[in-house]
Structure formats: C-alpha cells, structure tokens
Amino acid sequence: MKILVLNAGSSSLKYQLFDMDNGNVLSKGACERIGAGGTITHKRPNAEPFYEELDLANHSKALARVLELLCSAEYGVISSIDEIGAVGHRVVHGGKMLESCIVTESVIKYLETIVPLNPLHGPPAIAGIKSCLELMPSVPQVTVFDTSFYSSIEDFRYIYPIPYEFYENDKIRRYGFHGTSHRFVSYELAKVMGKPIEDLKIITCHLGNGSSVTAVEGGKAIDTSMGFTPQEGIVMGTRSGSIDPTIVTYLIKSKGYTAEEVDNILNKKSGLLGITGLSNDCRNVTEAAENGNARAELAIKMLVNSIKKYIGSYIAEMNGVDAIVFTAGIGENQWNIREKVCENMSYLGIEIDADKNKNFERGVPFEISAEGAKVRTWIIPTDEEYMIAIDTERLAKK
Ligand code: ADP
C-alpha cells in the first residue's frame, strides 16, 4: 500500500509518500511560505530536486500542487491519486484522544475544540485534513498524535500541583510531545538490541531545535519532560524550558511586559539563542564555544546539565535504566553534546566509548557504549514520518 504522510505547519506543508511493501520513500518534499507567496521543493530518489515559486494562498492550494507533482509525467512517482491507499496526518496535540484514528466528522470537530491548547499547530493540521477530504474524498485519512504515546503516564506524574479544578475544568495537565519520535526510537532500540521491549527500561533524548526526554518502561512512556505545552523541560533552541513560573508574573507585574510579549520571549527568544545572543542552532553555539565565546560555553553547559537532570530523575523513577537513546538533529549529529551529557555518569552505569561517539556512523542505529558499561547508549535516527505511515497503514487496512 502507498501511504502519503502530511505534516502541516502554520506556513508549511511537508509530505512523504511511502511504499509500505518495502518501506521505501517514493517522494518527499515541502511547501513553504504558504499564505505569503509560496515555494515547493519536491524530491525523488536518483533525480534532481524540483523547485518552484508559485502562489500558494492556503494549505488546500499547496496540497493540490503536491498531488499534481506526485502524479505528473515529468516529476511524478505514481500515475494517479487512486494509487494512494491512505493519508496519515501528523497532529501535534490529540487532547483526550489516546490512539491514532481514522478521521471522521467528529474527530475534526473534537480537534477544533482543542485548538486553544495548541494554537500554533492545531489550525494548519485541521486545514491539511480538510484539504485532503476535499481533494481526495475517497481516500481514508488517519490522524497520528504526538501526545498519544503519553496516554500511559500516571496521574501523579501528569497532574500539576496547582488547584485541582484547573485540571478538571481547564484540562491543564502534562500532555508531552514528540511522542511519535520517542515511540519510534524505543521500538527501534529494542529491535537492534534483540530484546523484547517489554523487558527494557529506556531513556530517549530527542534533541533538536525543540527537545524532550522521555522515560519508557516496557514500551510505555512513564514520564516526559515536555508538559502542558512544548515549553517545559530542557533548554532548547529558542525555548527556555523549565523556569520558575514567578519570572512570568514578575515580568508582567513589575516590568510592564504583556502576556503575549512574555510568551514570545520564552518561546522564541530564550534557550540557546537567548543565552548566547548569537544563534538557536547548536552547531553555531558549539563553534562559538570552541572559539572561546563565554556565553556560548555557558549555554552548552546549561543545555547539557538540563539533560543530565532528566536522565538522573528518570533513572530514579524507573529504579534503573537499560539504555539511553540519542536522536534528532543534535542527538544524532553532535558528538560533543552526547559526550558531555554522558560524562561523569559512571555511578549510574552510563559510560560511552569516546572514539565510537566521535567517529559514529550517520543515518543508522549506532551503539556508542563503552565496553562493559552497565547501561547501553545508542544513537538511533528518528523517523516520525515512517512511524505515522505504519499507524496509517494499520488503521486503513482494518
Ligand atoms: P527540529 O526538527 O526540532 O526543528 P532538528 O531535529 O532538525 O530540529 O535539530 C536541529 C538542531 O540540530 C540544531 O540545533 C542543529 O544545530 C543541530 N544539528 C547538528 N548537526 C546537524 C546536522 N548535521 N543536521 C541537522 N541538524 C544538526
């Protein structure tokens, strides 16, 4: 079966078409600047990428052009839309929806009710789903939620210690994000270790521009660093991660910032960018630190320390750990961050081989544990789109 996976952002639409019979990616690409001009980059294996600038007024126009390209004689990989067996949508926030599901009217209506929980990603995801219903009405649509991997977290870990009514009435609780990635890499880890996932305690570190750490026991998430929103947890590219909440009220009450300005500062101007004043990109921050920039050195220390604290606390929560996984842009590529995170952790059984960590193989699961280390440490490339395609095929076949 061929599965089209869509990931809609506020001004972008990323896509991948999979042939699930062999797991191959037939084509992938991205529409960007939707609503403010428009560009498409469309790729196929063994062919030059196709790029065009055109007017993409909305997500529906973008999807229509993607479908045209996928089916075109010159740049296409299928002969007609009918070859697409199902479409899988990445939806960041599923609210109370605990499992991936086939899209129905009531699913869309529910997603509309939880837009306030997810104002950035909710509307474009709904627009993507509606565009598919309009342009390919007979093809089943599946929604796969970043939050659903966290349905296994227990209440004492997801409820915040604020008046209980905020949980009951306003749905304020830990939801957790990046779940599709944490789920994918934990199952991949079990495969490469040749162990049943039911027997493993794993800590997965998804370190990208947005970053989160998750404790996975027996294949189920038991705790995660992101919370009510993706803002909580470790230091990120532009997000602060966890801070004393009184900083927010202090900025508003004593410094005259509006709530919106504080939101913007904490989401877009903090983290690596905020500390260094240079860049949100960990490669640039690493380079600046190597050249002696004191604030870049400080930012790296803060990032590393915030990851270490979650690893330590999850080992305490699970009473041990069998494996640590590094994934996403930083986790898969930046040996310096992995090295510093794993430094001085031998008390907990975490020791890596400096040489393997530095000369790792990219794009494949790669073990970097030191000989004889009690805890196994792996780099596992994430593939959220493939995970979405797997769920989509499973549900479409039912
Ligand atoms: P997101 O998907 O959250 O936007 P990514 O997973 O692409 O982010 O990660 C981006 C981060 O990974 C950046 O901080 C970047 O510096 C870092 N990084 C390091 N090396 C690479 C690389 N070779 N490719 C992509 N990102 C890299």
Provide the succession of SSEs: EEEEEHEEHHEHHHEEEHHHHHEHHHEEH
Percent of sequence in beta strands? 15-25%
Rg result: 21 Å
What binds here, in terms of ligands, is:
adenosine-5'-diphosphate
User: What is the mean pLDDT?
Assistant: 96
Structural class computed from helices and strand pairing: alpha/beta
Task: Report, as a whole number of angstroms, the end-to-end distance.
Answer: 13 Å
User: Biggest sheet, open or closed, and with what strands and sense?
Assistant: 8 strands, mixed
The gross shape turns out to be: globular
Description:
- The chain has 398 residues and is an alpha/beta fold.
- It contains 15 helices and 14 strands.
- α10 packs across α11 and α11 packs across α13 (335-342).
- The radius of gyration is 21 Å and the shape is globular.
- The model has no long low-confidence stretch (mean pLDDT 96).
Short overview:
By secondary structure, the protein is an alpha/beta fold.
Characteristics:
398 residues; alpha/beta; six-stranded mixed beta sheet; 15 helices; globular; binds adenosine-5'-diphosphate
List the helices and strands and how they pair.
Blueprint: E1 2-8, E2 13-19, E3 24-32, E4 39-43, E5 50-53, H1 59-71, E6 84-91, E7 101-102, H2 105-113, H3 122-135, E8 141-145, H4 155-158, H5 164-170, H6 179-193, E9 201-207, E10 211-217, E11 220-224, H7 246-253, H8 259-268, H9 271-276, H10 282-290, H11 294-318, E12 323-327, H12 328-333, H13 335-342, H14 354-358, E13 366-367, E14 376-379, H15 384-397
Parallel strand pairs: 1-6, 6-8, 9-12, 12-14
Antiparallel strand pairs: 1-2, 2-3, 3-4, 4-5, 7-8, 9-10, 10-11, 13-14
This protein binds adenosine-5'-diphosphate.
